Amino acid sequence: MKQIETEIIIEAPIEVVWKTFIAFDAYKEWNHVIDIKGTPELGEKLTVKIILNDKTSTFKPKITKLEEERIIEWTGNLAHRRIFSGNHYFHFHPEGESLTRLTHGERFSGIFSRPIIRKIEKDTIAAFQKFNQAFKEQSECLVI
């Protein structure tokens, strides 16, 4: 299994960070990398658009893990999970009262995961980091 993982420290309490994250409808106002439509509830299907190198890929993953203010994960497949599957995750860790560490990544599996990841790894890392920075800025501007 191949994994891509990024991290960022956000100068905002976890409650603010979580509320910013689950406000999917507001994403278009502050980021241009990931667009999410749907409801942040366990088992829900989302529509996720990710922009890599000016190319938009749309996925319809299912939320597979949700722990309020801590974890949200979804899994999507290309054709079938044995062909190519991605488990995208956002883990939120409080660092004291006013800081939150975001761990943002994806675990890939399936028979085509290695060649696909070789092709998109660099751009995927850059996109995750760009999203993380925009998310950090948006969360921090909401701290009162």
Automatic annotation (TrEMBL):
<protein>
    <submittedName>
        <fullName>SRPBCC domain-containing protein</fullName>
    </submittedName>
</protein>
<dbReference type="InterPro" id="IPR019587">
    <property type="entry name" value="Polyketide_cyclase/dehydratase"/>
</dbReference>
<dbReference type="InterPro" id="IPR023393">
    <property type="entry name" value="START-like_dom_sf"/>
</dbReference>
<dbReference type="Pfam" id="PF10604">
    <property type="entry name" value="Polyketide_cyc2"/>
</dbReference>
